């Protein structure tokens, strides 16, 4: 049984463990001060960051972090799903699917215009999941570090 809910103060320890796993997956190390700032925003209801936690059989199993923003193309806000991660020991059991479906349901309820996300072209496992929701579009990302 998978349940997806808002991020809470009591999730901090579990989230840090999952966040470390997410960093390992991307072979990166987000600086501690950035992680702490992210955490503060996840706990701030006024922040544009939206943290969601998936629980499987009462255990924290994964998370999504999204950013809600304005758009010049729509009247209502659009949601960028920035981070998605499932505990490696709990994969393949529908937790990732539940985390995306949760954002779709939340967005419909709150009147967002769109939900979008990016992934590496070769992230086959994630793409199999994503393709079951919607077809990827033809946009390519350009990113300049400032
Ligand atoms: C991508 C990820 C979030 C998927 O989470 P998950 O809980 O394993 O996904 P689900 O169990 O909901 O699986 C959904 C689909 O993924 C695919 N899938 C599941 N297990 C799989 C496996 N062992 N091998 C290949 N594909 C698999 C299937 O298409 C499945 O569809 P189904 O629901 O019809 O069976 C998870 O693998 C993950 O955290 N990966 C590392 C981080 C990452 O890639 N994040 C996304 C960055 S954009």
Describe the structure.
With 146 residues, the chain is an alpha+beta fold. Helix content is 34%, strand content 25%. Strands 1-2-3-4-5 form a 5-stranded mixed β-sheet, sandwiched between helices. The longest helix is centred in the C-terminal third of the chain and has 16 residues, at 95-110. The radius of gyration is 15 Å and the shape is globular. The model has no long low-confidence stretch (mean pLDDT 97). Coenzyme A (COA) binds at residues 25, 84-86, 91-97, 119, 123, 125-126, 128-129.
Topology:
Layout lengths: L1 E5 L5 H14 L6 H11 L6 E8 L2 E11 L8 E9 L8 H16 L3 E4 L6 H8 L15
Parallel strand pairs: 4-5
Antiparallel strand pairs: 1-2, 2-3, 3-4
The structure holds coenzyme A.
Coenzyme A binds next to strand 4, helix 3 and helix 4.
The tally of helices reads 4
Which homologous superfamily in CATH is the superfamily?
A: Gcn5-related N-acetyltransferase (GNAT)
The averaged pLDDT comes out at 97
**How many individual domains?**
1
Oligomeric state of shown chains: single chain
The portion of residues forming beta strands comes to: 25-35%
Bound small molecules, deduplicated: coenzyme A
Task: Note the main sheet.
Answer: 5 strands, mixed
CATH topology: Aminopeptidase
Strand order of the largest sheet: 1-2-3-4-5
Estimate the helix proportion, in percent. Answer: 25-40%
CATH architecture name: 3-Layer(aba) Sandwich
